[in-house]
Write a structure and sequence with these properties.
0% helix, seven-stranded mixed β-sheet, 123 residues, mainly beta
């Protein structure tokens, strides 16, 4: 239900923009965000944004990455500037507190994950 795009191969210091679309009829998504998993490491939070606009960033990306969302379109984007080799990872889109049409209502909503998109930063 989440489709991510925008990954690729860039050089140290360059930029990329990731996008993620939530498909289907969705009444509400509380939090949308991005996580990443580098080879041999655990998945970690990159950035999240609440539907009211509150953002959260990992210390390692604060000041370089910017997350944004369009509540009407149920999309979330991640602008990544000044990329470093240590940003190399598979990036996953996430949505929490999803209230979709056609599924039983639960107060806390459902959680969705995207399929992942690879970002490679060469030195």
């Amino acid at each position: 239900q989440l489709q991510a795009s925008g990954g690729g191969l860039v050089q140290d210091g360059e930029s990329l923009r990731l996008s993620c679309d939530a498909s289907g009829t969705i009444y509400r998504i509380s939090v949308m965000g991005w996580y990443r998993q580098a080879p041999g490491k655990q998945r970690e939070l990159v950035a999240t944004v609440h539907r009211f606009g509150t953002t959260r960033y990992a210390d390692s990306v604060r000041g370089r990455f910017t997350i944004s969302r369009d509540n009407a379109k149920n999309t979330v984007s991640l602008q990544m500037n000044s990329l470093k080799p240590e940003d190399t990872a598979v990036y996953y889109c996430n949505a929490e507190g999803v209230i979709p049409a056609g599924r039983p209502y639960i107060a806390e909503g459902y959680e969705y994950w995207g399929q992942g998109t690879l970002v490679t930063v060469s030195s």
